[in-house]
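User: I'm putting together notes for a lab meeting next week and I want to include a structural view of one of the chains we've been expressing. I don't have a solved structure, so I'd like a prediction I can at least talk through. The sequence is below, exactly as it appears in our construct file.
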Amino acid sequence: MSGKRVCLLFAIAAGLLTQAASEEYTAAERRHWAFQPVVRPQAPAFTLAADKTWARNPVDAFVLARLQKEGLRPAPAATRATWLRRVYYDLIGLPPSPEQIKAFESDRSAGAFEKVVERLLESPRYGERWAQHWLDVVRFAETDGFEYDTHRPDAWRYRDYVIRSIQEDKPYNQFITEQLAGDEMDAADQTLRVASGFQRLGPLRKNAGNQEVASSRNEVLTEMTNAVGSALLGVTLGCARCHDHKFDPIRHTDYYRMQAYFAAVHDQDVTVATNEEKASWEAAKKAVEAEIEDLRKQMKTLKGEERGRMQQRIRNAQERMPGPLPALYSVHNDFEKASSIHVLARGEYQNKGQRMGMRPLGVLLPDGAAELEPGVKAPRTQLARWIASESNPLTARVMVNRIWQYHFGRGIVATPNDFGRMGGRPSHPQLLDWLASRFVEEGWRMKPLHRMIVLSNTYRQTSASPQEAVAMEKDAGNAWLWKFNRYRLDAEQLRDSMLAVSARIQLKMGGPSVIVPADEELVNLLYKPAQWAVTADGAEHDRRSVYLIHKRNLRLPMMEVFDAPDFQTSCARRESSTHAPQALELLNGAFASEMAKALAARLDREAATTAAQVDLAYRLAAGRAPSAKEKQLGVEFLRNQPLREFALAVLNLNAFLYVN
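Assistant: Thanks for the context. Below is the predicted structure for the 660-residue chain, given as structure tokens.
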């Protein structure tokens, strides 16, 4: 089927052809690879027996064909223990225990690898790990950012929605539809209402509490529009906010036609408190309000220091105002307050041009495709239908590329939020389309792709290749996958691993986010230091990092130095930097010190001799026994140094910090 015919059918399905539009797109603009229909290619075939054996599935076939074309060959297979540690961190973000490693190395049954993968994909820890990737992409945070950084006390429900959806392997097209239009689908369904909170995830500038001033409203709509471009479509749609895109065929008018789908969206917190809770809350609120009113009356007659003391009493009373009732952090359509969407010259809300209606990106439609007729009652459902369509050439490609990236450290397209002309070209274009078409055919589910990837011989390669020197000259970035990419644990993996090996980790799932102790100097920099109210139950502090509060204006030093994102914009790919503050944090940081103490207590508890303690420490932290030299050094160290210092040294080992 021709690309033009696909575009036409796509537009008819979305109900777009109602009135003529003027923009046209050249054949060259439409030819860009990312805008072409996804066509499932035939997997390469091989004649040599060794090649047939190595290419155990289509992933291997495409990778091997590219390596052979470039005169390279795959690296040998990693050891079983190496693969197991790799797949544990990959799928659940935690290390395997020594017992799990021993059991796998002893299991020589035909389906040993498959059993491990199935167990990990069914583990609740899988949903927690892979939810973090999505939260990065959609810049999930639980505060507004900017100077006030007001807390969003119910935003954690969106995090839990993502974890549950990924754990259940919810079809991706359904997943994104619920987030774009859950409130339109069924306003009475609490899960769908929470899902549509996706549209409130961006930072929010407060203007004396008034969110309907034109500038603030424009910023809100901009956030919603840009997120759809980067997170769901993998295009730099935001670059067309001020003018026609300089590189991609995205017109200035395209941007505001996409924004028009959100014209009627407004915030809505849907209270889920019981009548008794509401009555109690109202009583407490009225009591504090009465106290404040009485204090203000008294203050009218006061001067000087007495007036200052009274002001402080008023502030203290305001701090006792009850927090908001439990609610669903959501949105709804308010058509009476719908914004009038205009093309804005230079993106400035005061420079209004032509008024725009709703329409998807023109380059993916036939020339002359029109805007939706006014009065559509579920506009975001229409947008979701277009984005989640099998005919959309971007959506499936973008998501399978993200999945590939999180397995190999680099996407088939190295710029996962930018499939445009200035983004990277696919290292394996046919493989990308094969994966995208397979993804759709299997119901838009992630777990089948995980299985195929982590059970492939491509994924099983060692991270050191016999042809390293030659391969590095041809492909220094290892885009063609002639070996596995060794990587350092990210911030969440590192913190969670410290908790796991020290036997401190608490695996409770869901619920309000945890606030752990932080340096007083950092807390005092907040607009209101009282916002950082440490969770009273100390056991909660040892929960997985995904449950820590995502506060825009305060990141824990350990998370920040190990490249956790700042939650301001979509994080398409975590950086992996190396610098001195990381070593300082691991050697001197409060958390590292506490975990070293806990690990030392575990070693003392579970190992009777010094040699046994060294052996157990390496098996816990590195997933292997220490070498003879490592064991000798460890035993000698412990003759003169306390066990806690040895435990701290173990938590600083490359063997702990890196996955091979």
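A couple of points you could mention at the meeting. Confidence is low (pLDDT under 50) at residues 11-22. DSSP finds 30 helices and six strands in the chain.

User: Perfect, that's what I needed.
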